[in-house]
Structure formats: structure tokens, C-alpha cells
Design a protein that fits this description.
It is built from 16 helices and two strands. By secondary structure, it is mainly α. The chain has one domain. A two-stranded antiparallel sheet has the order 1-2. α1 (2-17) runs parallel beside α5 (120-146), α7 packs antiparallel against α8 and α9 runs antiparallel to α15 (363-379). It is globular and about 60 Å long.
């Protein structure tokens, strides 16, 4: 049908353009970015088409909503949205509370539309297009390094050839390092699974991704990659665990990475000291608003008040992100909002793990996604990546694609 084809085309465009389109502007608090514009079109068309097929084919098209593995997620999402909307009433900046809630709804609605509408062909094309788009973004990362186009530099770190930290098509090297982890496990798995003829192709891709990950100089992404690698070896390639100590020793022997890695464990590090103070500010904010929080998205708008009140937490700026997605949610939506938020992402992780265990077609894709999610969950202890639309929207999209693929397999088996 025309509506479905149009939805597919817009979603394909979304998947291609968003990873390589860094433009982000706001008009009266409304984000005018590629993900917002294309996502809005996709949602409008998807909702219209979903209503059409509901009237035509009946309730069975929504059966996936009642899948036992989705039911808990449904409840958690509804509760989280309700708490977010209630928080508007006591937020200092009500506009931000509303826009943050609607931003979350964008992820959720796209997630559910993919579960309803997508078929095997759409899933395979969408996964391929995302991979190709990320290859283009990584190629640009190499160009950015070669032409010295980045001004991101930390005073404590010496960078190779005087180049800044690579951030490619994302706003920040921390976001970019995490984004690279969405694809870096794919060539590793393919090399371990494929015939020799594909090893060179996958090795080149791995070098491309590894270069971008390394030159982002994002410690959280480096450790996240290591955690993903450990999970990969534990789940499928146990012999690979032998290589991990050698990789660790090599990383510490190379001057380029040694200082950056060791700084993770240094409390005298300027960056680490800043993060600890930011976390402390968020924790104090949470304790003082234990049940309700300060309102969705409002940590940033209450930060000044708290560093004036607790002068030892002041870091020379009147607005500062908490650099921890979990503390951010506890501070903004209180104990229940924070726990529900964590529950949502644990459920998303479970959907991918279930796909890995039960799918044949998408098993290896799910394995790569599991490795990424481990790195993603870890890095969110040090950054607010769950609130970066250009990145977080693909967490939801990829999980929806993989789980729908597994669901379709199960339906095929039942019909045989």
C-alpha cells in the first residue's frame, strides 16, 4: 500500500540522514533537527497507516503489544510518561519538561510503529542502511582528523599530531565514541563467523571504526568497548578471553592511550573531580526532592540554585549537565521516576537478549547489539547519552527492528 511504502521511505531517509546530519537548532524550544523533522513525518504517516490496517485487518495486527515480553515494558512506559507529565506542574521550566516528555514519546512511538508495521524486508534494509550511514560518518571522522577540523582538546592530554578529539558528525566526542560502538562489533563477529574471503573487508571496517573510537579519546567508550568485548567472548567465543590480558597490556604500553586510561582511576584528574562534584549536586537535588524530583529536564535549570547554596560544588559555570543519565532521572523525577527509567532500559536489554537466544536470522545482529548496549549502559554513568536524540533514537529503533524480526520468525514457526 502507498502509505506503508511512504512510511518505509521516510524511515529509510531517517536512518540514513540522522547519523550524518549534525545540524541542531531550536525555534522557541522546539528542536529543528533531522531526527525531529523526519521523525515527525514518520510518526504521522505510521499512525495513519496503523489505524487503517486496524480497521481493515482487525486487532491481530496489534498482537505484538500483548506479547508477554512487551507487556511489562508497556506498563513502565505509561507510568514514566504519566510521571513526566505530572512533573510539568511543579517544574521551574515547564516548556522544557513538556519538550523532554515529547522527545521521549518520539522514541517510544517510533519503537511501537516499527513493531506494528515492519516486515522482514524492511528490517534487513533498515539495518543495512544504518550500517552504511555509520561507515560514511566514520570516513568523515578520518577526514576530520586528517584536516585537523576538531577544536576539542583536554588540557591534561597530549593528542597525536596536534589534532583534536574526533567527533565526526556528532556534536561531541563523547557522543561519537558511543555511536561508534553501535557498529564496531559487527565486523568483529563477521570475521569470527565468516569465510576467509571476507576477513580483509571486515578487517578494514574494524580498523576504520577502531580509529574513530580511539581518536574520540572518550574513556567511557573505550571501557564500554572492552566490556562489550568481554560479553562477546563470554556468550559465543570463549577462546577470545585469552586475548583480553594482552589487549589490556598493549593499551597501557602505548603512550597515546596509557595516560588517558590511567586517568580513569585518578581522583586528582580535573575531569574526574568535576564529574564527582556534578554527581554530588545531582544526588543532593534528588535527596531534597526524593519523591517527585525537580521536574523532567529541569536539572539544568535548578543547577544554579544548588551551586549557590552549596558553594563547594561550583565549577565556574552556572549551567552544567550532571554527566550521569541515572542520577539525572532520579533528580528530575524522584525515586519512582528513576527506578522506572532504569526498568525501561533493562527491559529493552532483555528484548535483545531474548532475540539473541531465540532468533536464527537475527542472532548475530542481536549479539552485536547486546555488546553495544552493555557499553551504552556503562557510558551513561559518565554522560547523558540517553538524552542525546541523534544517538538514543537508534537504540530504540535497532531494538524494535531486531525484536520484530524475532517475533516474525516465531509466527512463521507457528504457521508451519
Amino acid at each position: 500500500m502507498f502509505l506503508k511504502r511512504l512510511f518505509n521511505v521516510i524511515m529509510y531517509s531517517f536512518i540514513i540522514i540522522v547519523p550524518i546530519m549534525p545540524l541542531k537548532v531550536k525555534i522557541k524550544y522546539f528542536p529543528m533537527s533531522a531526527d525531529f523533522i523526519l521523525g515527525s513525518f514518520a510518526i504521522a504517516l505510521g499512525v495513519i497507516y496503523s489505524l487503517y490496517i486496524y480497521n481493515k485487518d482487525g486487532k491481530e495486527v496489534f498482537d505484538i503489544f500483548f506479547d508477554k515480553r512487551i507487556k511489562i515494558l508497556n506498563v513502565l512506559i505509561i507510568l514514566f510518561v504519566l510521571l513526566s507529565l505530572i512533573s510539568v506542574s511543579y517544574s521551574v521550566n515547564k516548556t522544557v519538561a513538556i519538550t523532554e516528555t515529547f522527545r521521549f514519546l518520539e522514541y517510544v512511538i517510533l519503537f511501537y510503529l516499527i513493531l506494528i508495521i515492519s516486515d522482514d524486508r524492511f528490517i534487513k534494509i533498515a539495518l543495512l542502511l544504518f550500517f552504511l550511514s555509520m561507515i560514511l560518518a566514520n570516513i568523515y571522522g578520518v577526514v576530520q582528523f586528517a584536516l585537523n577540523l576538531s577544536n576539542f582538546r583536554d588540557a591534561e592530554q597530549i593528542y597525536p599530531l596536534g589534532r583534536g578529539r574526533v567527533f565526526a558528525t556528532f556534536e561531541n566526542p563523547n557522543y561519537w565514541g558511543c555511536a561508534v560502538n553501535t557498529v564496531i562489533f559487527i565486523p568483529i563477529i563477521d570475521m569470527l563467523e565468516s569465510k576467509k574471503i571476507k576477513i580483509i573487508y571486515n578487517l578494514l571496517l574494524f580498523i576504520l571504526f577502531a580509529f574513530n573510537l580511539l581518536m574520540s579519546f572518550t574513556r567511557g567508550s573505550w571501557v564500554g568497548f572492552a566490556l562489550g568485548l568481554i560479553l562477546l567472548f563470554l556468550l559465543r567465543y570463549r577462546k577470545g578471553l585469552i586475548a583480553l590480558p594482552f589487549i589490556g597490556v598493549l593499551s597501557l604500553l602505548v603512550p597515546l592511550t596509557r595516560k588517558r586510561i590511567l586517568s580513569i582511576f585518578s581522583f586528582s584528574s580535573l575531569t574526574n573531580n568535576e564529574r564527582l562534584k556534578l554527581w554530588k549536586t545531582g544526588i543532593i537535588m534528588f535527596k531534597e526532592h526524593f519523591w517527585t524530583g525537580v521536574g523532567n529536564g529541569n536539572y539544568l535549570y535548578r543547577y544554579t540554585e544548588y551551586v549557590k547554596k552549596y558553594k563547594e560544588l561550583y565549577l565556574g559555570r552556572w549551567k552544567f549537565s550532571v554527566h550521569n543519565s541515572y542520577i539525572k532521572m532520579f533528580a528530575e523525577l524522584g525515586i519512582f521516576g528513576g527506578l522506572i527509567f532504569i526498568g525501561i532500559y533493562l527491559n529493552l536489554f532483555y528484548l535483545v537478549f531474548d532475540t539473541y537466544l531465540k532468533s536464527e536470522k537475527y542472532k548475530l545482529y542481536a549479539l552485536a547489539a547486546l555488546c553495544f548496549i552493555v557499553s551504552y549502559v556503562f557510558q551513561n554513568f559518565f554522560n547523558n547519552l540517553m538524552f542525546i536524540p541523534q544517538l538514543n533514537v537508534f537504540v530504540w529503533i535497532i531494538i524494535a527492528l531486531l525484536y520484530k524480526g524475532k517475533y516474525l520468525e516465531e509466527q512463521e514457526d507457528k504457521n508451519e
